[in-house]
Structures are given as structure tokens and as C-alpha cells.
Amino acid sequence: MPPNHFSLQIASRTLIQASAPPPGFPSIHAVSNLDLVLGPFPIYLICLYPPAPSGLPAVLSAVRAALPGFLSAFFPFAGRVVRDPDTNVPLVACSNAGAELVVADAATPLADLDFAEIDASLGLIQIPFDGSLPLSLQLVRFACGGFALTVATNHLLADGRAFVLLLNCFAEMVRTGGGGGLSGGPPRLDRCLLSPRSPPRYSPSLDAEFARFTPATMINPLLTLAIRRRLYRIDAADLAALQNAASASAGGRRTSRFVALCAHVWKLLARAVGESDPSCRMAWIVDGRKCVGGVGEEEGGALDRYVGNVVTYTSQEASVGELLATPLHEVAATVRGAIAGVMRKERFQELVDWVEEKKAAYKDGGKWTEAVNLGLGSPTLVISGLLPFAIDGDLGGGLGKPRLVLPWVRHGRLGSAAVTVVPCPGGDGSWFVGGTRLWPRLVEVIEAGPESLLKPVTAASLGFAGAHGSRL
């Protein structure tokens, strides 16, 4: 049974500076217009590890030793998020004021946590941090000797791809003792992908995609209490079966597993909506690195080591009745078309131009958000995935490999549903589906019957069932 009370005690908060700041790095690191599309808010990437063979003191020592070298490679993350005094647009002051290393203790073994109801598990171990900090590295030690290592940052500086890069590079630094370079080369920290045109040019439809982020546009706080967070696992065999079903009549083209899962979830959403609304929407957060390219990149390059935001939303509305009656492969074709529709460099150029004209909103404290996030109109589920990116939280011999890596965002007063899909670190082809925001009715439909493909995650399924030993 999950614990009735989860006690988390902060043991220490330490500021750690870069050991070798790169010479000539600009004192002010300007963010791009693509960074401003989502704007500043905290995001977390939580990694859960079983008890380390070398013990928790060795974990802390290795993490502390790696951080100065890591910050030297990712120097803006040792600075501070500030505001331009004239425009109020956020910037990064590369002052080497130091990133935060937080150490905390949980008086609970991992085996006792309710991982399916993640507000009662992962939601309790991510530690709030000052909004001016670009990086808060958080080590939570559990009573069983297991631990959580959380990379927390500001979304202004990193999207999902960049977030994974931060984790992978830090894990490599830990494995190598914090010395030497990164095997994949240095990260790309510039913000020179796309510049606004003069004058800015964009489709008028972009205005309808965004809304001012104000209390008047969001659901009331009591409604947010009804929103649930759940964590599911879908096995590789079930994903393969979905992929086969979604590839039928595709003219020889193989549907991706992600598109197949999206089609399946969209049909679940339609079942949950039922007769309460004639239609429902799916929305996707799409990484644009493959189509944007940039300075020094080969045409179509993936910008794998670019640290910043290169994402956009796209959405599609469909009739509930038609979704329920339509074969999976036809729904998958709709999903594929919606995603392909924004995989254009011109789409991202228009976003850059649109933000350029809307920057004045920052001066009066305003912020924009994608309208589909608000939860107004027909029911909408937003889905994103970290699937194309190899997630490697391996800290090396004696320290361990993660059993779960999952992004975490506080949903605040947004009323749409949202899930994030990530690969299981074990590498067996299974995926975790983290419910960032789910309505109770949608949870009922997802979990209806033993035939459900999305299985609630448990401590036992993560391999923590026997982790009841004392903290080392």
C-alpha cells in the first residue's frame, strides 16, 4: 500500500560554479523567438534508480564532482534568468553564479510508492526552485538506498530534445569522473537558427492558435483538483500489434509506433467523450530539428546537440462518431498528416516572425500559450514524445542505471488533457505513457478491463518491490 504520509527533508542546497568557464562567452545569452513561444516555466526530468552497489555517499560524491565540468560545457546553465530592463523579455546572464545542487531524504522505500498515481509519488519528489535558476540538480535519497536524480531547468532554455541531451551529457560526465570532453562533441548553445524577417510575415491563422495566458482564460482552481496524473506502461508486443493494425492498407508504408499509439489514444478519447460533445481534438508537440537546419548544419540536419527550443504544436479535430467507427489505420493516416503538415521550415519561420510582433506582451507581464492547452471548446488531448532520442541516465559502474526516466511539468490551471511518451530505460522496446493531465472519465476508459493496453505502473513492475533495505 502507498504510504499515508510522504516525508521529504531537504538536507542541503549548494550553489556550484563552472570550473572552467569558456573564454569569450558572451555575458548576456539572448534566447530565441522559438524559446519565447513557450516562455519561462520550470520543467523536471526525473530519473529513478535502484539501490546503488557503491552506496549513496558514492552517488553524491560522483554527482558533485561532475557538476563543475558539466556547467563549463553548458555555461548558460551556471548563470541566471533575468529580464531586459526595457522590454522585460527574459535573458540569461552568464555570470557563473552557480547551479543548484539539492540533496533531500525521503523516509520511505521506493517499494511503498504509488507510481500509477504519480501525484502521490513523482509529484512529491520534484523540489520547487527559484525561477531565476537555469539548473537545479536534485538528488533524493530513499530509505531503501534507491534514489532519484532530477534535472530541473527552465523551459526557456530547453525543449524535450535538449532536456534529454542535458541528462545524457551529465550522466557521461559522472561516468568519466567529470573530466575530459563529451564523446558526442560540445553542445550547440547559440540561438542562430532562424532570425525574424523584416517586416515579419506569417499566416493570420497563427493568431487563432494562441491566447493570452491570464486567469480569465484558464479553468478555475477547483476544477484543476479534478485532474489526475497517471503513469502507464505499454509493452513492446502491444506496440507492435498496434503498429501492424495501423499499417494495414497503408500502401506498403509502415506506420510508426508513435503514430499508431496516437491513433489508439484518440479512439480512447472519443470513447470517453461519448455523447457529451460531437467532436474531440488531438494535439501534438512536434520537434522541428529535422526540417529547420541551421548555420553549419548539413541540409536537413537534426541539430541533435542544439540546446534550445525547436518545437511547435499542431492539432486536429474530428467527429466522435466517426473516430469510433473508423479503422485504426485510417485514424493513423489523419495523425500522420497532421504532424507532417507542420514539419516545414516555413512553419518555424512564421513562428519566429509571429513572436517578434508579439514581444510587447512581455512588457506588461503578459504571456502567450497555445490555445489548445486551455481546455476550451471540444475536449483536447495533447501528446508529446521523447521517443526519437536515446535516453541514457547510466551513471556508471557501482552507481546504477535508471528504471524510469520521466519529464514532469506542473499543469497549473490548464484544462486540456496531456500525456508524454518515453522509452523504458531497460531497452526492451516498451514505453511509459505519463499522464501529465487526465480527466477522471478518460482514466476510466483507459483502464477499463484487463484487455487495456496501457497498464498502470507499480513499484513491482519497476523492480522496486524488494527494495526495503535501510539507506546506505
Task: Explain this structure.
With 472 residues, the chain is α+β, with helices and mostly antiparallel strands. 28% of the residues lie in helices and 23% in strands. A hairpin with a 6-residue loop joins β4 and β5. The chain contains 14 helices and 18 strands. It has helices at 33-38, 56-73, 122-125, 160-175, 205-209, 221-224, 236-247, 257-273, 289-292, 320-325, 328-340, 345-358, 360-363, 440-446; strands at residues 8-16, 28-30, 42-49, 80-83, 90-93, 99-106, 135-142, 147-154, 210-212, 231-234, 279-287, 311-319, 368-370, 380-385, 404-408, 417-423, 431-437, 455-456. The strands form 4 sheets. Strands 12-11-14-16-17-10-18 form a 7-stranded mixed beta sheet. Strands 1-6-7-8-3-15 form a 6-stranded mixed beta sheet. Residues 295-300 and 468-472 have low confidence and may be disordered. It has 2 domains: 8-175, Chloramphenicol Acetyltransferase (2-Layer Sandwich); 205-456, Chloramphenicol acetyltransferase-like domain (Chloramphenicol Acetyltransferase, 2-Layer Sandwich).
